[in-house]
Amino acid sequence: MRIAIVINTSWNIYNFRLNLIKALQAAGHEVVAIAPPDAYSSRLEAAGCRYVPIQMANKGTNPLQDLLLVKRFYRVYQRVQPEVILQYTIKPNIYGTLAAKLAGIPTVNNVSGLGTVFIVRNLVSKVALSLYRLAFRFPVKVFFQNPDDQELFLHYSRILKQKYPDIRCQLLGSFDEAGNVGIKKNTFMAWVNEGAMEYLGTSDDVAACILHSDCVVLPSYREGTPKTLLEAAALGKPIITTNVPGCKETVIPGQNGLLCEVRNATDLAVKMEQIYLLPDEELEKMGIASRQLAVTKFDEQFVINKYLAVVAAVAAQANRGK
Given CB 3.0 to 4.6 Å as the disulfide criterion, which of 23, 216, 289, 302 pairs with 256? Predict the structure, then answer.
């Protein structure tokens, strides 16, 4: 079968879906990656994918303007002619699904987060929710990474730095100032300049950064299932994250980490202090528990097997219709 994987960035496909691509290819399928061009588009081609670019802003909160994406997706899908489309992120999930319905192509959607429009409830979020209701009548399968959903990042650490000057708090990743829901870059860099934080920038080798840490902290407002925390667990690191959908599923409090209250910097600092003060042997026990949770609950092969099963079912249905 020809299978299209559609996400809002090539970077996302390469970093989060490469193992799925390899599994599909090993099963004899042709994989087409459809995403806006970036530095990782050529890496997808090097991995054996046919890469097809599409113009799509991965941020933006104007559903009426984004309806033009339906036309773009439809043209691409008509040209590529996939037999099934695997879609991720909000815009492919909504507008790609509508286009695929018009083109008569079955889709499988993955809800990894509902997008920043759902943090602030307003007319835009109401329109987006209505579009979700419309589009999600059509996929043959929808995967949810948690019962609720979404993504944002916040980091706050002056409280600990003042009390424990030797503590090192580091941020790994890029800044996302879209949607007015995160910490502004100039604010964060002021924290760096005063010595409260260290900024590591971005990296293709996240595992190496995690291995040099004692604990991984993700005080998000809401998530799908954050790969950051899955990687931390797989690498045997204690976790501190917020008690919100998507994040809380990665922690058994007191065993492999701690949960803090959302939007509560003081509580976050308290939880970080608790981990900082743990004896080495207790920290090691938490790391072992994280690794065990990753193996038994979050092994990527579980997800890949589900996708292979859905693709096989779609293929069988198509063959019966011939």
Answer: 289
